[in-house]
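Human: Here is a favour to ask of a fellow structure person. Comparing notes only helps if you start from a blank page. Give me a protein, with the fold worked out from its sequence. Please set it down just below, with no commentary around it:

Assistant:
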Amino acid sequence: METIAGHLYDYPKYYDLIFGSDWAAEFKFLKAGFEMYAKRPIKRLFEPACGTGRLMIQFAKAGFEVAGNDLNEKAIDYCNERLVRHGYPATAFVGDMADFTVKKKVDAAFNMINTFRHLPTEKLAEAHLHCVAESLNKGGLYFLGLHLTPINPQKCTAESWSATRGHLSVVSNLWSMGTDPKKRIERIGVTYDVYTPTKQFRITDETAFRMYSALQMFDLLVKEPRLRLLNMYDFRYDIESPIDITADTEDVVYVLQRV
């Protein structure tokens, strides 16, 4: 199998197949969260670091006004082309999730699957929360999902999953290449094995995530006082079952409200 070294985000078609096929649980959770926690009607949404817009398109179909940004131009092109193809305006734009403004304040924002951890420093993480707070109407909601670093990490450090759409299949493999707790960096290796009727090839990439313990995340959140923590959930996405965070908690969605 031919191997290509490159950035996975430069292949939005394959990225969207792997991550976009599993949108329903998050979509249902977010809609339920809007109904449970909103103090104002939720009509306008924003997704910082939206990637291919796998959730944006679903919310657009459900009647919401959607917009988002991402640093990767190819992902933004993919997102906008899909929006336009389904009859919606091209509202995604190239931008940094730690340095952005919106033309019109939104009622809710979301960043659901660890993308926040791409921000490499505390300063940039704080800047991200500041931008979100600036973008939200008062009473608006922000759903932030990420993996925390537990005190006793699981021994399983790799995962694999696949998805198929028509004649295209992609198998994704992800594994931890090691952590540096002092620098708060976790290195992740990723491959996509791509199968089409005429060719097979592998894309390889490596990325780094900033590490957050439960306490470090709480310390960060209080630095943006305009975002008040309402509740926390795990990745079962059960709106009726909020969780209490301990030192061993890993998967968390923080529900924050603009005050």
Summary: The mean pLDDT is 95.
